[in-house]
Amino acid sequence: MSGEILDLIDENDQVVGRASRSEVHGNPALLHRVVHVLVFDFGGRVFLQKRSEDKDVQPGKWDTSVGGHVDAEESRKTAVRRELREELGIPPEGRPAPSLTFLHAYRHENDYESELVTTWMCRWDGPFHLQESEISDGRFWSASEIESRLELKGEESPFTPNFTDEWRRWHRAGCPRPE
User: Fold this and answer.
1) How many CB atoms lie within 10 A of CB 89?
2) Residue with the larger pLDDT of the pair 166 and 155
3) How much is the average pLDDT of 6-13?
4) How many domains does the chain have?
5) Is residue 73 part of a domain?
6) pLDDT of residue 48
7) Do residues 58 and 93 make contact, with C-beta atoms less than 8 angstroms apart?
8) What is the domain range of residue 115?
9) For 125-138, b where at least 16 C-beta lie within 10 A, e where not — what string?
10) 45-98: per-residue pLDDT in tens?
């Protein structure tokens, strides 16, 4: 994975250079693009993935359904489809892809990196084929289940800071659901 090449962007989302994944992780001055997808079942629960203990960022924490870098010269929509297939096996062979609903875009910053995140939603009940190298578990969570654990901080929190931020933004947007 350290061989991934990403576009570096400025505040206006214009490409200003390229860097490897290993260069952008650990250098918050290098703004780059990522995509997220919130996957809901037909009952309104959201699917979360548990990051592998081998991940370099937030190992063992519950995270957004799908998240990944946008490769250099790749469109966001292509990255979303690629990440859905890689991480969750959506859609499986012979099934149509779910329709995607754009939710929002925002800048997420921490001491480790700076990302321009673009988030979509979709509806999918399964099946899922988890990418074992990156995901140790996955399941649907109700909003009340998430909310009851959201205030836990640091090591006590079961969620990544990115997911916590994503969840709060989704709520501020009025909790839209996919069609």
Assistant:
1) 15
2) 166
3) 97
4) 1
5) yes
6) 98
7) no
8) 5-172
9) eeebebbeebbbeb
10) 999 999 999 998 899 999 999 999 999 999 999 999 999 999 999 999 899 999
Q: What pLDDT does 179 receive?
A: 61
CATH of the domain at 142: 3.90.79.10
Mean pLDDT of 11-24: 96
CA distances 38 to 26, 61, 86, 124, 165, Å, are: 26, 16, 15, 10, 13
Q: Quick check: is 61 in a domain?
A: yes
Is 17 within 8 Å of 34 (Cβ atoms)?
no
**Complete DSSP assignment for 125-173:** -------TTTEEEEEEE-HHHHHHHHT--GGG-SB-HHHHHHHHHHHHT
Q: Which helix (H) or strand (E) holds 22?
A: helix 21-24
Question: Which residues are within 8 A (CB) of 123 and not within 5 positions of it... i.e. 6 or more apart?
Answer: 39, 40, 41, 42, 98, 99, 177, 178, 179
Specify the residue for token string 């250079």: 17
Q: Is residue 179 part of a domain?
A: no
Could you tell me if 101 and 37 are in contact, meaning their C-beta atoms sit under 8 angstroms apart? no
Angle at 126 between CA 92 and CA 151, to 5 degrees: 130
Q: Is it true that the peptide bond before 91 is cis, omega within 30 degrees of 0?
A: yes
Tallying the residues shown for the chain, one arrives at 179
Q: Is 52 part of a structural domain of the chain?
A: yes
